[in-house]
Amino acid sequence: MILKRTKKTVLAAIIGIFTIYLFTSSSPAIKASSSGTDGFIIEAQEITGTLGVPLIVFGETATRKAVPMIDLAMDNLEIKGLVIKKVTQTPNGPVTTVIKSGGLTKLKKMRVRITNIELGGLFIPKLGYLGMKDVKLLAYKQTADIAELPNFSVHYEAGNANQMKDQNEEGLNQIIKSLQNGGKEEEEVEETSSDEDKMAEEDIEEEKAAEQALPEENPEKDPADQEEPADDTEKETPDEPETDTPDEPGNEEDEAEPEDPADSELPPEQEDSGSGDAAPTTPNTNQ
After folding, report:
1. 111 has a pLDDT exceeding 80
2. Which helix (H) or strand (E) holds 175?
């Protein structure tokens, strides 16, 4: 039991010394091992804090001189999901030391020199503060006045976990520009998209209002309105000359037919003569 407690005490002491060495400015700054890969990786799910003026400086690593770096100063840092990875070369190949924080890490007056940074996004948590999401830094020197790393753990992994490469001076200037913008570009994009969404919604509402104002496709017309087209047609039609309408078939009987003289009734005197003696004839003088 005593041996187990001693091992726990020794492990806690080693972790505590490593933490003080890694995060306090009172201790020497961390540098890459001369027998290992230059630099170390700092990863975090989210970092928030106040940002100082980032500058480009030329520093030394374990194997190189005059390397362009960004000297990044931040204060009142709160870090979620902090992970630190350091690669060391061994006779059996590279080994990565992994340190994880089990809670919210807080740092005061932190300064770090980096040669590359990968960000999932920038945001402004509150006035004067900068927020970074899904952060990955390639660092060569890091210090802090006060560090709180709750429930952190240490383990080792075979292989080289440092797959990041140094940026040149031009790339570092682009990183500085992005950090100094402080997520303003992202906010402008969000505001623009929200404004476009509002405009689209307003257009849709206006179209709906216009459709409601239009009459129905087959409305019931007033009888007076239905007669108007006929009147217009009569007005537009030119006057045609009057012509005699031909008699319709079957109306001939209605017309008065001329009487045949033979069929007309004889005067009474002729009727009497026909029934009795004939009238005297004129003698033929041509005989």
Report:
1. yes
2. helix 169-181
